[in-house]
Design a protein that fits this description.
InterPro entries: Chemotax_Me-accpt_rcpt, HAMP_dom, HlyB_4HB_MCP, MCP_chemotaxis, MCPsignal_dom, YvaQ-like_sensor. By secondary structure, this protein is an all-alpha fold. Helices cover about 85% and strands about 0% of the residues. Helix 3 crosses helix 5.
């Protein structure tokens, strides 16, 4: 009921707040849809009247008919906007005073339109003095009366907007008082109900806290009685069930220590079997050590052979480098030959041109000789040029001969270098053959290594069989021992906290601790014949995987392998 009362007060606060907000919204809507648009239209009309009159003055002062036409068009647009705003304002009229003033405004606007038509007509005749007299006469008086009417209407709408704002403020103040009053009432009622509820609930909760503290301290002998069926009574009943369940669990845990003692005995037996199998593994390790000694000597011999092979390989590398150098020289020589050949081509081109010119000059000389007859001055000049060209041709031919001789010498030198490269490659082949012989020796040594490795594999196979069994036993024994140790310590520490009822404890079965079987001393291990080296552990392909760790509580049937 208390919560319902608080909820009812909260609902009242919300309803009142919503109602007052609705009134504020109505006032705001009235301002935004009526008063403010009407005021805006009136102010726009006043501005348009002033602009219209300015355009009339500019029409009178215009010096051409084109300017007059432009101003007449602008005045038509201004008058259309004025009529549009007037129509908008007419639809927003709400006050009786506005309805009385608005017809007078319409009448003034109509009269002003008549005077406007007269002014425009006289302005077209360029009689500016008469037009100015009209615009400063009745037209000016009508303009002032129109502005006065617009100011009155604007004041009416501004006053209406002010009244709406004041009404909204009053609604807000009234709503604030209502909401504050109801909130204070809700707080006061909530405090009274909270104190009453706390007094009713605190007593059963105090009893439940005492019971929980007793259980936390390990005392499970508390007697719990639930006197009611409400939430606190259900809490006490749950605490009673928890206390009984904990008492039962602690008794069962104490009985479980017997199972732990039995598992410890089985672990001791498994460790004895593990010790005997370890001795067998030591014998196999001795055989492995002997085989390792033979394998070591063979590996050493292979290492020496490999070293010699490495030296020969280095020598072969040097010879190969030498051959590469020779080949580089051959390439350079061939490059020189190529350059000389290019020069020969150029010189041949020059000779070809000279021959062509010589032919032309000879032809000209023949023509001149035919024309001149006895007077052969032209022929003498041509003959001189022919001799000059002949000399140049002879010099070019001589240069060609020299270059060709040089190319022949370089080709011979390149041939010798190629022969030297061939001999170098023969040396490389010999070195490679020697490397092949040494590799044969290495192969023979590898065969001896294979024989020794086979003996090692046999010994490792025997070791692997025993190692797999031992690994399984060690993993199971380690997991069981660790789990038993952790559980035993945890159980002893946890159970020692709780104090059980004497009658309930008498009904539990007493437990006994089994004495672990003493582990016999391991037999003495024979000394190895030689220094045994550690071998990496391995498993045969297809061998059984490592067994999973056995759970501490699962002690039945897991140790039959011993």
């Amino acid at each position: 009921m208390s919560f319902i009362a608080v909820l009812a007060l909260t609902v009242c606060v919300g309803v009142i707040a919503v109602m007052q907000l609705g009134k504020v919204h109505d006032m705001s809507t009235e301002m935004s849809t009526t008063w403010m648009p009407a005021t805006r239209s009136l102010l726009e009309m006043k501005n348009l009247v002033s602009r219209y009159r300015t355009q009339e003055m500019q029409h009178i002062l215009s010096g051409s008919y084109d300017e007059m036409a432009a101003y007449e068009k602008a005045m038509d647009e201004t008058w259309a906007n004025l009529q549009k705003n007037r129509t908008t304002y007419e639809s927003l009229i709400t006050e009786p005073e506005e309805r009385e003033i608005y017809p007078e405004l319409q009448k003034l606007l109509n009269q002003y339109a008549v005077e406007h038509n007269k002014i425009v007509a006289i302005s077209h005749t360029q009689e500016n003095e008469q037009a100015n007299a009209l615009i400063r006469g009745k037209s000016l008086q009508l303009t002032r009366e129109i502005n006065t009417m617009l100011d009155k209407l604007t004041e009416i709408n501004v006053a209406g907007a002010t009244r709406a704002g004041q009404t909204a403020d009053g609604v807000y103040s009234q709503a604030r008082l209502w909401v504050l009053g109801l909130l204070l009432g809700s707080v006061a009622l909530g405090l009274v109900l909270a104190l009453w509820i706390a007094r009713i609930v605190s007593r059963p909760l105090s009893e439940a806290v005492k019971v929980a503290q007793s259980v936390a301290a390990g005392d499970l002998t508390s007697r719990i009685e639930a006197r009611t069926t409400d939430e606190t009574g259900q809490l006490l009943e749950a605490l009673k069930g928890m206390n009984d369940s904990l008492s039962k669990i602690v008794g069962e845990v104490r009985m479980g220590t017997d199972t732990i003692a039995t598992a410890s005995s089985q672990i001791a037996s498994g460790n004895q079997d593990l010790s005997s199998r370890t001795e067998e593994q030591a014998s196999s390790l001795e055989q492995t050590a002997a085989s390792m000694e033979e394998l070591t000597s063979t590996v050493k011999q292979n290492a020496d052979n490999a070293r010699q092979a490495n030296q020969l390989a280095v020598s072969a590398s040097e010879v190969a480098v030498k051959g590469g150098s020779v080949v580089s020289q051959v390439v350079d020589t061939m490059g020189s030959i190529n350059a000389s050949s290019k020069k020969i081509v150029d010189i041949i081109g020059v000779i070809d041109g000279i021959a062509f010119q010589t032919n032309i000059l000879a032809l000209n000389a023949a023509v001149e000789a035919a024309r001149a007859g006895e007077q052969g001055r032209g022929f003498a000049v041509v003959a001189s040029e022919v001799r000059s060209l002949a000399q140049r041709s002879a010099a070019a031919a001589k240069e060609i001969k020299t270059l060709i001789g040089d190319s022949v010498e370089k080709v011979e030198e390149g041939s010798k270098q190629v022969e030297e490269a061939g001999r170098t490659m023969d040396e490389i082949v010999g070195s490679v053959k020697r490397v092949t012989d040494i590799m044969g020796e290495i192969t023979a040594a590898s065969q001896e290594q294979t024989s020794g490795i086979e003996q090692i594999n046999q010994a490792i196979t025997q070791m692997d069989q025993v190692t797999q069994q031992n690994a399984a036993l060690v993993e199971e024994a380690s997991a069981a021992a660790q789990s038993l140790q952790e559980q035993a310590g945890s159980l002893v520490q946890s159970v020692s906290i709780f104090k059980l009822d004497a009658n309930a404890l008498a009904t539990r079965t007493s437990f006994t601790r089994l004495t672990p079987i003493p582990r016999p001393a391991a037999a003495a291990k024979p000394a190895p014949k030689g220094p045994a080296k550690a071998l990496p552990s391995r498993r045969e392909p297809g061998g059984r995987p490592a067994p999973q760790l056995a759970m501490a509580g699962d002690a039945k049937g897991d140790w039959t392998e011993f």
